[in-house]
């Protein structure tokens, strides 16, 4: 850092007359976590802690609660792209578009959403629009297996996000403790796990949430540790499909625990 810049920084500090003792006097009444966080940001930005070599000292953020892209739409898109497939209809077995007999018990699905067994998710306004688009394309006759909608794909993905969000919010409110919910909602990996648990269903969401709640209650709040616990919960779920998906869920969480 050049001398001119150092001199300017020093001048600004003197003009602002801010130091840690003054901050404690002014903000001493702030007791809540949010206030302390604001104070810390203020002090970090103002004091500009430099080391002896003139380099800005970085703090270790490996245990930070926040992390990654927590935009719900983006997380849903990522889940669809990496965990769920495109379109399937039982007619595909009959007319030869699909020859794998393992699909014999599958109903009509798109992006992992079962039209017949999806329940309320399909009867929401977004759900109705989602399936109306597919019907207007006569997908059951025209689309190939795993087709994702072509030019309609972005709209269909957007609708899935609208379909999933109310159920994620409901499950998170019901099954995650307030502290756990705050950690999950601020970390893209943990949020991805629980958004996908919304696909898995309320029973699985509740089971996975209990693992996180118990861990947080015991004092484990590091997202990396909680991510490992989440993956282990899938691996040891006792359900072969859930367990087999643990590796892919680990990948979208950005972890290497599976």
Briefly say what this structure is.
This protein has two domains: 3-47, no CATH class; 72-253. 62% of the residues lie in helices and 2% in strands. It has 15 helices and two strands.
Describe the protein.
This protein is mainly α and 258 residues long. 62% of the residues lie in helices and 2% in strands. It is built from 15 helices and 2 strands. The longest helix has 23 residues, at 153-175. The radius of gyration is 25 Å and the shape is globular. The model is unreliable at 8-66 (pLDDT under 50).
Distance between the termini: 44 Å
| Residue windows where pLDDT falls under 50 for at least 5 positions | 8-66
How much strand content do the residues show?
under 5%
Tertiary shape = globular
Find the count of extended strands (DSSP E, 2+ residues): 2
| Cα-based radius of gyration, to the nearest Å | 25 Å
